[in-house]
């Protein structure tokens, strides 16, 4: 039996901080802090339809996101099979109606959803722990991950890149509509 003086507390593994060089989900470099090691390169083609995440050391593809106008968006990892985005990030119907997606990673089915403080947060399968989130009020952004999900880091990063970009597009469109039609909701004009 151990007495209180015989127990040694060990600090849990430190969280992983992925800091972007720019406030962009389309074109940036990402460093792992506090070491400052460059870990990912994010590039997007001129038409903003294809975003690639590459390993900074080898420049090999880690993930590829293809955005399409009429067909479903797709994702592939390490040059592997292309999957429809809605099959990879499955929509979750939760009682509180906050937009949510299911992301299958090594630890199981996690829930990625909007969060009032972190903007986006990835929850553990039981929704009892936040495993990854944006650091609040940082520009450029920093993604913070629990060390328990390090093996799924590239999938989590890709999901955050995709969903954050979709949120920004939606917000920009809402702002544009509000500036064109101030003080109104959507209007429909009919002619006879």
TrEMBL record:
Pfam families registered for this protein in UniProt: DUF6593
Domain of life: Eukaryota
Domain DUF6593: 23-168
Protein name: DUF6593 domain-containing protein
Species, as recorded: Roridomyces roridus
